[in-house]
Amino acid sequence: MQGAKLFGGWREALFGLRPKAPTRHPLGREARLSGIVSGASEGHGAAMPHDHADDAPPHSLLPPEPALRVKALETLLTRKGLVDPAALDEIIETYAHKVGPRNGAAVVARAWVDADFRARLLADATAAVAEMGFAGRQGEHMVAVENTPEQHNMVVCTLCSCYPWPLLGIPPGWYKSDAYRARAVREPRAVLAEFGVTLPDATRVRVWDSTAEVRYLVLPMRPEGTGSMDEAALAALVSRDAMIGTALVAAPT
Amino acid sequence: MSRVHDMGGRFGDGPVVPGSEDDPIFAQEWHAQALALTLAAGALGQWNLDVSRHARECLSPGDYMAFSYYEKWLAGLADLLVMRGVVTRAELAGAIPAASTLTDRRLKPEAVAGVLARGGPASRDGAAPRFAKGDRVRTRHPTRNVMVDGGHTRLPGYAAGLVGTVELLHGCHVFPDANAHDQGEQPEPLYTVVFDAAEAWGRAEAPGDTVSCDLWESYLEPVA
């Protein structure tokens, strides 16, 4: 608790406060009360994190507003020499622009046009997608599951948000939502209807709950009328959701 | 025996809102920062994936439900940083940061591509599998970590005590129930076990619908 009353960390970084702290008031009261920094100028009032008890979880010591919370942590770790902001930028750049569902769509299109590749993909997806240069974090153990008229596959992670990053990128908000995590396993057809997908009762629905480090890619059915299309054109038809199993690939119009 | 993250099958969450495929990958700039910070802090090597999952699961139900997705990540990260002694509570609260002994482990920008491309495979050498494809197995009931009370486990509550069929064998994988608690990797054979939806839920939306989980061998017992 004592340290929490010193100024100079995230509060300074965020609010431009530059008190002479960590010197403490001669009477032993915290610097804040000495007039160096007024409560009013901080604008936090009753929400000051140091109001928490010592047994409060550490995260409750951070600022209440999420954007400030992440900034505070980043500032702290950067100042301690544990994080390089340029590395953070590199990570963000990777998942914002380089790694995303176009990777998975390329895999699907190749499987549609190349029977040998399709067989390798279904036998060992990790090795097959590595042939195309796709590998890495959250895609170390890939399994491809093929949609057929008999079985439709749909992927969820009920316990957290496991998802094949190298092929599909960072999961969309709905995939991480409580509603999807809770309901996809129990009533997949009702969830599919919310995505505008209705399957015949004769098509079995298979939900894959990603409870380990195996990551699933749904291989959608190739639509009718695409026989003359090349791989790139086919890949353009394949949506992210079709590779999670919450959409079908529609024939080109 | 449950924690709040184990929500498979729960009622009351309302509709799924699909959004658009063109929605931004990160709805807010701070979401991207939170993800990057979590990955960069993980690269310091002070915990593993299972430890970090458990940290998020250990958020109080009130916090877990109140926090948005990346707020859970941030909270789990802050708690882990203190738990592992990487930062102090005082530093989190705003004290002037002290020097760290871990600075040589800092993830460098030029190393990011390689680290992300390598990932961290969970497969390990280990025992031969006890079960074969097609075997009938029953899952542990109730779900729980048998080594650590209230500890991390990856058998969802809805799948506890069910009889299913072994469909895929994945070799041995790091055992999260041990690895999340600094008890080593203790790799075990990992299986995909498929359950009839009617068995899991009492009623299936349509006959023949199924749900599968990826489960470690010690979660399973043979069914004669």
From TrEMBL, chain A:
One of its GO terms (molecular function) is transition metal ion binding. It is an enzyme of class 4 (lyase). Residues 40-64 are annotated as: Disordered. Keywords: Lyase, Metal-binding. SUPFAM superfamilies: Nitrile hydratase alpha chain (SSF56209). The lineage of its organism: Bacteria, Pseudomonadati, Pseudomonadota, Alphaproteobacteria, Rhodobacterales. InterPro entries: CN_Hdrase_a/SCN_Hdrase_g_sf, CN_Hdrtase_a/SCN_Hdrlase_g, Nitrile_hydratase_asu. This is Low-molecular weight cobalt-containing nitrile hydratase subunit alpha. Residues 66-247 form the Nitrile hydratase alpha/Thiocyanate hydrolase gamma domain. Pfam families: NHase_alpha.
From TrEMBL, chain B:
One of its GO terms (molecular function) is transition metal ion binding. It catalyses: an aliphatic primary amide = an aliphatic nitrile + H2O. Residues 1-98 form the Nitrile hydratase beta subunit-like N-terminal domain. It is an enzyme of class 4 (lyase). Residues 127-222 form the Nitrile hydratase beta subunit domain. Its EC number is 4.2.1.84. The keyword Metal-binding does not apply. It holds the Pfam family NHase_beta_C. NHase catalyzes the hydration of various nitrile compounds to the corresponding amides. Belongs to the nitrile hydratase subunit beta family. This is Nitrile hydratase subunit beta. It comes from Antarctobacter heliothermus.
